[in-house]
Amino acid sequence: MYISVDHSRFKVTAKAVDDYISSVDSNMARANSEVSSLSIIWEGKDKVYFNQEWNKVYDKDSTYKKMTNSLSSYSELLRYAGEQYKNAQSKAYDRSLWLQVY
User: Fold this and answer.
1) Which of 7, 20, 24, 95 is least crowded, fewest Cβ atoms below 10 Å from its Cβ?
2) Cα–Cα distance between 13 and 8 in angstroms, integer?
3) CA-wise closest residue to 71 among 20, 7, 8
4) What is the DSSP string of the chain?
5) CB of 62 within 8 A of CB of 24?
6) First-to-last CA distance in the chain?
7) Burial (CB count <10 Å: 0-12, 13-18, 19+), residue 10
8) pLDDT (0 to 100) of residue 21
9) Interacting residues of 75 by C-beta distance below 8 A, sequence separation 6+
10) Helical H runs in 42-62?
């Protein structure tokens, strides 16, 4: 019995995660641009309150940033795991070449 792992799938999945992060970052940047544009013409207490709430969504300690940082870490882990499996399979194959066949 043996374990077979397609290590290339780790890289494919990591790229999909990275693409998702890029998409979310792009959408958030567009939303931030829209909020900034609104702030130019909007006045009053509502503007101040809305901007404070938006900053909670968009700043470095926001759920959005924590999510993208977590996904980025996950992507790195996938790449690392893929490399580890690839190396383990390569070592196992190399060692098998030295086994005697009966």
Assistant:
1) 95
2) 9
3) 20
4) ------THHHHHHHHHHHHHHHHHHHHHHHHHHHHHHHHHH--SHHHHHHHHHHHHHHSTTSHHHHHHHHHHHHHHHHHHHHHHHHHHHHHHHHHHTTSPP-
5) no
6) 19
7) buried
8) 98
9) 14, 17, 18, 21
10) 45-58
Amino acid at 91: K
Task: For the chain, 102 residues long, give each residue's pLDDT as a single digit of tens.
Answer: 677 789 999 999 999 999 999 999 999 999 999 999 988 898 899 999 999 999 999 998 999 999 999 999 999 999 999 999 999 888 888 888 888 776
Q: In this structure, what token pair is assigned to residue 68?
A: 């993208």
User: What residue type is assigned to position 66 of the chain?
Assistant: K
